[in-house]
Write a structure and sequence with these properties.
One of its GO terms (cellular component) is chromosome. InterPro entries: SMC_hinge, SMC_hinge_sf. One of its GO terms (molecular function) is ATP binding. The structure is a single chain. By secondary structure, the protein is an alpha+beta fold. The protein has two domains: about 170 residues, Alpha-Beta Plaits; about 60 residues. The strands form three sheets. The chain has a five-stranded mixed β-sheet with strand order 5-7-8-9-10, sandwiched between helices. It has a three-stranded mixed β-sheet with strand order 1-3-4, with helices on one face. It starts with a helix and ends with a helix.
Length: about 230
């Protein structure tokens, strides 16, 4: 709940900034939550979700200064929620030499995202391997120094800890986000179509008004001509 409240509060702050001449130009420095800025195959949903955890809802911003401005405005308006920002200018990621093996693949290679967000994605997913099974995950975590996860969501930390259990795939946050994105796309398409139809109706009304005015002028001319004709009889 605090995370969702935070998301809504950030949106309210951005709307406030859009109306302020001194801040409107900075609004584009906000890129949205991590979960809205990448997609991947459904087969790796579970592995990706357990790796990221609540970091899926961290907010990507261009700079730490802009993130600070959003937080200050949230405090000024006393808006509820919990927010964590990922400023691209402050994230440091190192190049990783991934092991060449048929038992695992770098998680980052399974994600699709704009290159603009590369630092944020590598910061969260860059140190994790998706492994064929738990045995391979255990071995690779020990030999590669990287965190490992199976497609079922079992995790083996490079430090030795194992985490797992049953995960309800019907409540996948990535699946919900995908559905939401598809619905938002449909809404945008329908709004565009509705706007087009309204324009067509407006033009039709203008044409009708023009025709009616022309008919009235013609009737007036005919009436005057008839009056003149009657007087000449």
């Amino acid at each position: 709940k605090p995370i969702l409240n935070g998301r809504d509060s950030v949106r309210r702050v951005l709307e406030t900034f859009k109306e302020r001449p001194d801040m409107a130009h900075e609004v584009n420095s906000y890129y949205g939550p991590v979960i809205e800025n990448f997609d991947c195959d459904k087969s790796v949903y579970m592995a990706v979700e357990v790796t990221a955890g609540n970091r899926l809802f961290h907010h990507i911003v261009e700079t730490d200064k802009f993130g600070t401005k959003i937080l200050k405005e949230m405090n000024n308006q006393r808006l509820p929620g919990e927010v964590t920002f990922m400023p691209l200018n402050r994230l440091h990621v190192k190049a990783i030499d991934y092991p060449e093996t048929s038992d695992a693949i770098p998680m980052i290679s399974k994600l699709n995202y704009d290159a603009k967000y590369d630092r944020a994605m590598r910061y969260i997913f860059g140190k994790t391997l998706i492994c064929r099974n738990l045995e391979a995950a255990t071995n690779l975590a020990r030999t590669s120094g990287l965190d490992c996860v199976t497609l079922e969501g079992d995790q083996v930390s490079s430090k030795g800890s194992l985490t797992g259990g049953y995960f309800n795939t019907l409540r996948s946050r990535l699946e919900i986000q995908k559905t939401r994105s598809e619905l938002m796309t449909q809404i945008t398409t329908m709004e565009t179509e509705l706007s087009t139809l309204r324009d067509e109706i407006r033009k039709a009304d203008q044409n009708i008004s023009s025709y009616v005015s022309e008919m009235q002028r013609t009737e007036t001319k005919n009436s005057k001509a008839k009056d003149i004709y009657d007087k000449m009889k």
